TrEMBL record:
<protein>
    <submittedName>
        <fullName>NADP-dependent glyceraldehyde-3-phosphate dehydrogenase</fullName>
    </submittedName>
</protein>
<comment type="similarity">
    <text>Belongs to the aldehyde dehydrogenase family.</text>
</comment>
<dbReference type="InterPro" id="IPR015590">
    <property type="entry name" value="Aldehyde_DH_dom"/>
</dbReference>
<feature type="active site">
    <location>
        <position position="250"/>
    </location>
</feature>
<dbReference type="InterPro" id="IPR016162">
    <property type="entry name" value="Ald_DH_N"/>
</dbReference>
<dbReference type="InterPro" id="IPR029510">
    <property type="entry name" value="Ald_DH_CS_GLU"/>
</dbReference>
<dbReference type="InterPro" id="IPR016161">
    <property type="entry name" value="Ald_DH/histidinol_DH"/>
</dbReference>
<dbReference type="Pfam" id="PF00171">
    <property type="entry name" value="Aldedh"/>
</dbReference>
<feature type="domain" description="Aldehyde dehydrogenase">
    <location>
        <begin position="15"/>
        <end position="468"/>
    </location>
</feature>
<dbReference type="InterPro" id="IPR051020">
    <property type="entry name" value="ALDH-related_metabolic_enz"/>
</dbReference>
<dbReference type="InterPro" id="IPR016160">
    <property type="entry name" value="Ald_DH_CS_CYS"/>
</dbReference>
<keyword id="KW-0560">Oxidoreductase</keyword>
<dbReference type="InterPro" id="IPR016163">
    <property type="entry name" value="Ald_DH_C"/>
</dbReference>
């Protein structure tokens, strides 16, 4: 069993009292972490980050970059171990866990590249660029201060580092809170930051329940910025509590895939399967509802059923495609949505099988907009299929969701595709591909309950810095 200390105020700290992190595959304890009194822990971490900011913000970018590259090297050296922790605490397949580690290391490189680009090119406004006489304004970006990063369980390494890398390279200090399941990797990451030699207080990890730790973190006056990924319930609560603190929130989604009458159905089916069932649908960008034109419904559904039946179901360490959900409670929620839809007339076209929190992938047809399954985010392996006749009504239903993260449109007609994309209320619309955050250099945002602010490599840097102008006068 794993037992990790956490990095707070420059030291790896442990305690006799422990927090247990469950292994969703075995329903046994995967590891433990130190349990501290929440108020004292948060206070120590924020005080340390606040103090460290004074020196860290004036270190040379080269120093900060070298340290980030050092920790990235440690991540790469430990990639097998880190991936095994993901397998253990979030039941992500070993293959996808390794991909997450490597993708994140590339993300760090790209963040450094973008930082150099942004910092190397401050905005200069002078007589040559504008009609202002006798003034030269140089506008560069400076850090904000202490950044609080709150990461979710589904990408506990990637979405943590997607916050930490831009924050740190830009000269901010950080206090981060991993999701409860995701805390083992979060703690291990903090140890590697320590090993890389980050100065005291620059990186601090706090663990504990969201309720106890989260509120204390987001309400504290020493916090300069909050970057959160998780549910809309928690995200909106943070927005309420963090009065005036700049926020970037990535929350839920109910990403639709619209399959039009002229779509390449084989392509659409492959993308829907990948988009709907990767990591068991536990992705904010997962395809969570399919709108199919009635003329191609039967053919699409036939293809989808064939493909669902080929998905392997089993253990993350065996690289099964479908693995146990994060908890039995999560599986109960999915089950409830599907059962209710079936009671109201929907039909599950695939085998409905469940062993505790391991759920076989479900394709649920004849879903209507009267059913919760058409609106709620299951965060599980279920794709509801809604048939449409009139594209205008279909788009109305797409936009009636409280979410607006991403969407997919499948058609061979690019003019129509763009027209529909322009009507959809979402951060990004993907033509002939499933929704997805990557490539990571793309801006990533959501509308309505899906998010606030923009992420993605460049935009994260922008959100964690502010413009500083120096104006020279003749
Ligand atoms: O779960 C939320 C993630 O931002 C989705 O990322 O599209 O790379 O799976 P992804």
């Amino acid at each position: 069993m794993l037992n990790f200390s956490i990095l707070v105020d420059g030291a790896l700290v442990d305690s006799d009292e422990k927090i247990s992190v469950m292994n969703p595959t075995t329903n046994t304890v995967a590891g433990t972490l130190p349990l501290f009194e929440p108020k004292a822990l948060v206070d120590t971490a924020l005080a340390a980050a606040n103090e460290a900011y004074i020196d860290w913000k004036v270190t040379s970018p080269k120093e900060r970059i070298d340290l980030l590259l050092k920790v990235k090297e440690l991540f790469l050296q430990h990639q097998e171990e880190l991936a095994d922790i993901l397998v253990l605490e979030i039941a992500k397949s070993k293959k996808d866990s390794l991909t997450e580690i490597v993708r994140t290391c590339e993300y760090i490189d790209a963040t450094i590249e973008s930082y150099n680009e942004i910092m190397a090119n401050p905005l200069i406004i002078d007589e040559n660029t504008h009609h202002i006489k006798g003034k030269t304004g140089i506008f560069s970006r400076e850090p904000l201060g202490v950044v609080v990063a709150i990461a979710p369980f589904n990408y506990p390494f990637n979405l943590l580092m997607a916050k930490l890398a831009p924050a740190l390279v830009a000269g901010n200090t950080v206090v981060y809170k991993p999701a409860s399941q995701g805390s083992l990797i979060g703690a291990r990451v903090s140890q590697l930051f320590h090993e890389a030699g980050f100065p005291k207080g620059v990186v601090n990890c706090v663990v504990g329940s969201g309720r106890s730790i989260g509120d204390l973190l987001v309400e504290d006056g020493r916090v300069a910025m909050i970057s959160f990924t998780g549910s809309d319930t928690v995200g909106l609560r943070i927005a309420e509590k963090a009065k005036g603190i700049p926020l970037v929130l990535e929350m839920g989604g109910k990403d639709p895939a619209i399959v039009m009458e002229d779509a390449n159905l084989e392509l659409a089916a492959n993308e829907i399967i990948k988009g709907g069932f990767s990591y068991n649908g536990q992705r904010c960008t997962a395809i969570k509802r399919v709108f199919v034109h009635k003329s191609v419904h039967d053919e699409l559904v036939k293809l989808l059923v064939e493909k669902v039946q080929k998905l392997s179901v089993g253990l993350p360490q065996d690289n099964a495609f479908i693995t146990p959900l994060i908890s039995n409670k999560a599986a109960d929620f999915v089950q409830g949505l599907v059962d209710d839809a079936i009671a109201e007339g929907a039909v599950c076209l695939t085998e409905m099988k469940r062993e505790r929190n391991l759920m076989w992938p479900m394709l649920v047809d004849q879903v209507t907009v009267d059913m919760d399954l058409a609106w709620e985010e299951p965060f599980g392996p279920v794709i509801p299929v809604i048939t449409y006749d009139d594209l205008t009504i279909c788009v109305e239903n797409v936009n009636a969701s409280k979410y607006g993260l991403q969407a997919s449109v499948f058609t061979e007609d690019m003019v129509k595709a763009e027209e529909v994309a322009n009507l959809i209320e979402a951060g990004t619309v993907n033509i002939n591909r499933s929704s997805s955050r990557g490539p990571d250099i793309f801006p990533f945002s959501g509308v309505k309950n899906s998010g606030l602010g923009v992420q993605g490599i460049k935009d994260a840097l922008i959100s964690m810095t502010r413009v500083k102008g120096i104006v020279f006068n003749k």
